[in-house]
Write a structure and sequence with these properties.
This protein is an alpha+beta fold. It contains eight helices and 16 strands. Strand 4 (69-71) and strand 5 (76-82) form a beta hairpin.
Length: 346
């Protein structure tokens, strides 16, 4: 079924310019109604693909039945698929025009993912009735950096496990009243959550992110994380989120080698591969990658009401010779070690 594009010419211009700050409203999967027909709009950036389709549990993972269509010369593929709604499991199938590369990728803009070790995306919405108006209004009146803060950092997956139930982790909703009471009783002004963005290995701290717009499904839905933040705000506790724009893992379903080319990362391993973590480094000089990262930062502040972001591994972004021996880096245009693209981006 054909449908008008949700992407305006201005959206495309800002995206390709590197200044689109609300890209999550346009790309990804968005349940909607077109001409009275419920379904989902899908859009993905894959400029070096010759064919893109949506595959999922609802079409038997058929790579031919639901193709997307390129939007002008933006590199974006889009389409509306009727009768696909909230809860549908999906991936993008991409066929590269630069090689024989064929792959099923998770949606870079998905707001929900399957529980690991499954790797598909899930169609979802972000509807939530917030109750933190008083906190937000008070926050706006604060003097910001001039006021003292005390931060309690924690990892959601290991904080107060339930010993009597197989030592499982708490869900976001179970944690909410307990964490609020603990932070208040200890005199903390803020809590900092180690990465809650989707990551493939539950036993990690979460710093290898595969779903930058998805709250980790190990602990509940996006709305459940919103509830946790909401309860903390209602108890006078600010929320900081660990954000990881420094690198991303090489898992096949993730961002790496996305459309058969090094799309999100540098192609040269001296710039695009981190030797310490075995992960990919974002190409901060690529305009569309800037739009992706800036939109992601604002997504957590805007949609999830986070009060701030703690940026991980900043030194690895700022310096081209980070963890590299002499001769293992490419100097900047002035011959120095500073990563000018990362500095101007972030």
């Amino acid at each position: 079924m054909s449908a008008p594009s949700a992407l305006s010419d201005q959206d495309l211009y800002l995206f390709n310019e590197g200044s689109h700050l609300r890209l999550y409203e346009k790309l990804g999967a968005h349940p909607t109604v077109v001409d009275g027909q419920p379904g989902t709009r899908f859009a993905v950036w894959a400029p070096n693909a010759e064919y893109v389709s949506v595959v999922g549990d609802w079409n038997g993972w058929n790579r031919q039945s639901h193709p997307l269509h390129p939007r002008a010369h933006s590199g974006i593929w889009e389409g509306f698929i009727p009768d696909v709604g909230i809860g549908a499991v999906y991936k993008f199938h991409l066929r590269s025009r630069t090689s024989h590369y064929r792959v099923d990728k998770a949606d870079p803009f998905a707001v929900r993912a399957e529980v690991s070790p499954r790797t598909a995306s899930v169609v979802w919405n972000l509807d939530y009735q917030w109750n933190d108006k008083e906190w937000l209004e008070a926050r706006a009146r604060k003097r910001g950096l001039a006021e003292p803060i005390s931060i309690y950092e924690l990892h959601v997956g290991s904080w107060r496990r339930v010993a009597e139930d197989g030592n499982r982790s708490l869900s976001y909703r179970e944690m909410a009243p307990l964490l609020a009471e603990h932070a208040r009783s200890m005199g903390f002004t803020h809590v900092e959550l180690m990465p809650v963005m989707e990551h493939p290995f539950f036993g990690s701290w979460g710093y290898q992110v595969t779903g930058y717009f998805a709250a980790s499904s190990c602990y509940g839905s996006p709305q459940d994380l919103m509830y946790l933040i909401d309860v903390l705000h209602q108890n006078g506790i600010g929320v900081l989120l660990d954000w990881v724009p420094s690198h991303f893992p090489t898992d096949e379903h993730g961002l790496g080698f996305f459309d058969g080319t090094h799309l999100f990362e540098h192609g040269d391993p001296r710039q695009g591969f981190h030797p310490d973590w075995g992960s990919c480094i974002f190409n901060y000089g690529r305009h569309e990658v800037r739009s992706f990262l800036l939109s992601n930062a604002l997504f957590w502040l805007d949609v999830f009401h986070a009060d701030g972001l703690r940026v991980d591994a900043v030194a690895s972004m700022l310096y081209l010779d980070h963890s590299r021996k002499e001769g293992e880096r490419i100097p900047n245009e002035c011959g120095g070690r500073e990563n000018h693209a990362a500095i101007t981006c972030l």
